[in-house]
Amino acid sequence: MVEAWNFRQTVVTVRPIMRTLLIGIDSGTQSTKVLVVDAKDGKVLASAAQEYELLPDLPPGAKEQHPHTWRDAAASGIRRALRQARAVAAEVKAIGVSGQQHGFVPLDQEGEVIRPAKLWCDTSTAAECDEIIQKLGGVKKTIKALGNTVPAGFTASKILWLKKHEPRNYQRLATVLLPHDYLNFWLTGEKLMEYGDASGTALLDVRKRKWSSPALEAIDPGLAEKLPPLIASDKPAGTLQPATAKSLDLLPGVLVSAGGGDNMMGAIGTGNTRAGVITASFGTSGTIYAVADKPVVDPEGEIAAFCDSTNRWLPLLCTMNVTVATEMVREDFGWSYEKFAGESARIPAGSHGLVLLPYFEGERTPNVPEGTGVWFGVNKKTFEAGHFARASMEGVTLGMNYGLRRLAELGVEPTQIRATGGGARSKLWRQIMADVFNTEVVTVKVSEAAAYGAALQAFWCWRSQYEKVSISDITDQFVEINKEESAYPDETNVAAYQEIQQLQDEMSAALRGVFAKHRKFLMH
Predict the structure, then answer these.
(1) Tens digits of per-residue pLDDT, 466-493?
(2) Is 262 a catalytic residue?
(3) Does residue 11 carry a pLDDT above 60?
(4) Predicted TM-score (pTM) of this structure
């Protein structure tokens, strides 16, 4: 007899494990990048990017973009990154935004953009800078009032420019926002600024973290009414509003952190939250910055005394021409990146005396808004492609080292430099950095430091609702170094670059008057 068995089919429903996901957005001059990060271990699960251009056919020195470009790029990037991560809407707990600093986003009473934003790299407002400084009583009194001077890149002169050149648009002005503030406004409906990005407006007294009445008066007695409230770095800007949530396929109520400027977020994303670590960003512009527990004010005004986005301070130098210079050379020769690096590597440190003063877009550190690019030392030996390629990398790195030495004079000494940006991907360029800076240079595993920093700040803000946690604890846990990409100074090259540095410094000082005459010639 065969025993019959009655099998009962059992249906088992396996529920997917819900993750805690963070979104980091970096809205830059050339593109917007979006990361989806797992809060469990800090791993990047997905990324997306959207490129765009500056507005064409503007007058010399003018650099503008429409804020809607950033909004649309962020929306596209978020949707694509979430699909790539196979994210469920309920998994997303917090969003952080990093934005290019200093851009002036003018909104009317209805919250609509009045005109395209003038950007950080816009040098057309030099006259307005001089006017504000004069009204404040000169450079020394300006630094006393603000902790900073008023370079053309900062926001204050752009507001005065609008008042003087487009009075009808200025009459419509109801709110002044920065690029990352505008994206926060799109996400939450709230108009706010956090201290780090606000400190780059030349309207904030960075020591007291309050708007400077003398600076506001120098532009418009009614300007205070057009500035949004200030919030601390660990506070939320708000929560995702229903209309924006629907367009992103997310749930309303997702926390949106204070966010910050790209340099402030880059500091977090590279683990630059403790003394001794310095971040050097080699992108379109070049920045070097470090965290500080108290304001670091440069009496000469060359180093920006910013607040950071961790409720501390971020002394920072900025040069306006880094990959601007190298890409100009590479594209003109029609080379790939590999060819550019290979041709440069044939040339010894110092490029046989060919020196680039890389002021192609004007310059901010030192403050030479009228500057142009200058090749010095051109002769039969150096008038050759490889020399120009290597000298372009050396020239922009020496320009950044001008500011690094100034930081050291103010008491900010590096023990390690963490390089980010396009330039940091080049092995040769990392070695040039180590030799010029005379310091160990490393990279971090998540190369999109600003977007990653925005995600980590969002995590800090979200976790702070439930427990006490420091941003340094989070970055210590999540930010990892690429040990195989470390570069160390070569004594012979260090000595060569010290000589070239002196040449570049003397060229820059000697040509200031010539640059001003040249700008007048171009304007005629």
Answers:
(1) 999 999 999 999 999 999 999 999 999 9
(2) yes
(3) no
(4) 0.87
| Pairing relationship of beta strands 441-444 and 416-420 according to DSSP bridges | parallel
SS3 of 381, please? coil
Q: Which residues neighbour 79 within 8 Å (Cβ) at sequence distance 6 or greater?
A: 248, 249
DSSP result, 462-511: HHTTTS---HHHHHHHH--EEEEEEE---HHHHHHHHHHHHHHHHHHHHT
Average pLDDT value over all residues in the chain: 94
Q: 176 burial class (0-12, 13-18, 19+ CB within 10 angstroms)?
A: buried
Number of H helices, E strands in the chain: 18, 24
The Cα 303–Cα 308 span in angstroms is 14
For residue 324, CA distances in Å to 35, 136, 151 come to: 25, 34, 20
Instruction: Single out the catalytic residue among 262, 298, 308, 435.
Output: 262
3-state secondary structure of 80: helix
Local confidence band at 7 (pLDDT 50, 70, 90 cut-offs): very low
Task: Reply yes or no on whether the pLDDT at 329 is more than 50.
Answer: yes
Contact at 8 Å (CB) between 179 and 195? Answer: no
Question: Angle formed by the axes of helices 385-409 and 337-345, to 10°?
Answer: 80
Is beta strand 355-358 parallel, antiparallel or unpaired with respect to 313-319? unpaired
Residues 51-93 pLDDT 10s: 999 999 999 889 999 999 999 999 999 999 999 999 999 999 9
Spatial CA neighbour of 183 closest among 261, 85, 263: 261
Residue entry with tokens 């390089």: 419
Of 390, 403, 399, residue with least CA distance to 326? 390
CA-to-CA distance for 259 and 234, rounded, in angstroms? 9
- The whole-number average pLDDT for the span 334-360 is 97
pLDDT for 337 beyond 50: yes
